[in-house]
Amino acid sequence: MLKLEQLEKTYRTGDKALTGIDLTVPDGQVLALIGPSGAGKSTLIRCINRLVEPTAGRVWLDDLELTRLSATGLRNARRQMGMIFQEYALVERLTVMENVLSGRLGYVGFWRSYLRRYPQADVDEAFRLLDRVGLLAMADKRADELSGGQRQRVGICRALIQNPKLLLVDEPTASLDPKTSRQIMRLICELCAERGLAAIINIHDVALAQRFVQRVVGLRAGSIAFDGAPDRLSPEVLTSIYGEEDWEATSQQAEDESEGAE
Ligand SMILES: Nc1ncnc2c1ncn2[C@@H]1O[C@H](COP(=O)(O)OP(=O)(O)OP(=O)(O)O)[C@@H](O)[C@H]1O
C-alpha cells in the first residue's frame, strides 16, 4: 500500500506545486491522475520516488517511509517502484533486450550490467515479458527502429522486470495516436491486474482514463479536487477540476473512431 501524508512541494522558484496531499493507494489499484496543466501531476508522481524532493509530508510504501531514507536506502527502495515515461527514455543504440534488462540495473550492479552479464534468470524473464507484450520477435532490434507504441511496450517491460510493487506512470500515451494510446492503457491495466500491481498514471486524456481505471484523482492547483470512481466524473465535476478550461479538448478520442481493429 502507498500512503501520502500532507505531501507538499514548493519549488525554489516559489511555485507551490503540491499543497498538503493525503492519498492512499491500496495494493493492486490502478489510479489515474488527471487535472489541468500545472496542477502538480508530474510533481506528485516524482515526489513519491523522490526524483523531486518533497518540501514537507511523508510517503510510505507499505511500512517503509520513503521520505526518511538515506541515498542508499532510497536506491534500494526505488527498485520497488517502476517508472514509465512519456518519452520512453530508452537507450536508442541498444537493443530492445538490452533496454529491458537495464531495468535490472538496480539489482545486478554497474559493472555486471556494463559488461552485459545479466543472470540467465533475468534474460529468461525479459523474454517472457517481451512475449507478453507482443515484442518477442523484436528482441534484437535497436530501440531506434521501433514505433512509438513498440517503444512504450519496451518501457513497460523495463519497469516490470524490476519486479516492482508500484508503477509510476507519467503521461504514457502523450506521444501516441489515439488507437495506440488505448492499446497501451489497456496493456498497462491488464498487466497490473495480472500481477496485483498498484499504479498511478498521470494522464491528460480524461476519456482514456475513464475507460480503463478503477479510480480517478483530479488535481487542481496542487490539491485534490476529486477522488472517486470514473463514472462520477460528470461535466460539473470536470469543470470543478479544469475550471474554465475546455476539458473536452483533453480527450483524444474522436466520437466516430472505429474500435473494430483492436
Ligand atoms: N523544476 C521546476 N522548477 C520550478 N517550478 C516547477 C518545476 N517543475 C514544475 N514546476 C511548477 O510546479 C507546478 C506543477 O507542475 P507539474 O509539472 O507538476 O504539473 P502537471 O500537472 O504535471 O502539468 P502538465 O500536465 O503540464 O505536465 C507548475 O506551476 C510548474 O510551473
TrEMBL record:
<dbReference type="InterPro" id="IPR017871">
    <property type="entry name" value="ABC_transporter-like_CS"/>
</dbReference>
<keyword id="KW-1003">Cell membrane</keyword>
<keyword id="KW-0813">Transport</keyword>
<keyword id="KW-0472">Membrane</keyword>
<keyword id="KW-0547">Nucleotide-binding</keyword>
<feature type="domain" description="ABC transporter">
    <location>
        <begin position="2"/>
        <end position="246"/>
    </location>
</feature>
<dbReference type="GO" id="GO:0005524">
    <property type="term" value="F:ATP binding"/>
</dbReference>
<protein>
    <submittedName>
        <fullName>Phosphonate ABC transporter ATP-binding protein</fullName>
    </submittedName>
</protein>
<dbReference type="InterPro" id="IPR012693">
    <property type="entry name" value="ABC_transpr_PhnC"/>
</dbReference>
<dbReference type="InterPro" id="IPR003439">
    <property type="entry name" value="ABC_transporter-like_ATP-bd"/>
</dbReference>
<dbReference type="InterPro" id="IPR050086">
    <property type="entry name" value="MetN_ABC_transporter-like"/>
</dbReference>
<dbReference type="InterPro" id="IPR003593">
    <property type="entry name" value="AAA+_ATPase"/>
</dbReference>
<keyword id="KW-1278">Translocase</keyword>
<dbReference type="InterPro" id="IPR027417">
    <property type="entry name" value="P-loop_NTPase"/>
</dbReference>
<dbReference type="Pfam" id="PF00005">
    <property type="entry name" value="ABC_tran"/>
</dbReference>
<keyword id="KW-0067">ATP-binding</keyword>
